[in-house]
Write a structure and sequence with these properties.
The chain is of the alpha+beta class. It has one domain. It is about 25% helix and about 5% strand. It has 3 helices and 2 strands, in the order E-H-H-E-H. It is globular and about 40 Å long.
């Protein structure tokens, strides 16, 4: 569904290759494929034990454009679960107004 993406918690539910998780509309997906990670890899493979990004791994695996988007995603020290959010709403919450604005932009 357009406008929905994953918010990264512990990274255990989000597939790097297939899921919508980058804060980059409209697809929220990676553009360039990872260099060595298999297709069944999850975002958790890119995180350190303290849930911060393993910057060396991210920069090694991805082209600069995708790597920069990944490193912009805030992570937390608490092992929260990944969750689906509405990208265009405050705190990730869906609103009719947000959906209307998204549709209006699409039809311009």
């Amino acid at each position: 569904m357009r406008g929905i993406r994953w918010e990264i918690g512990d990274g255990s539910l989000v597939n790097i290759w297939y899921d919508q998780w980058l804060p980059r509309p409209p697809t929220f997906k990676i553009i360039f494929r990872p260099r060595t990670l298999p297709r069944d890899s999850y975002v958790a493979a890119l995180l350190n034990d303290d849930h911060s990004w393993n910057q060396d791994r991210v920069m090694c695996e991805f082209e600069t454009l995708d790597a920069d988007y990944r490193l912009q995603i805030k992570t937390t020290a608490a092992p929260n679960s990944d969750r689906l959010i509405w990208h265009f709403g405050k705190q990730g919450l869906f609103s009719i107004r947000g959906a209307y604005e998204l549709e209006a932009k699409r039809t311009e």
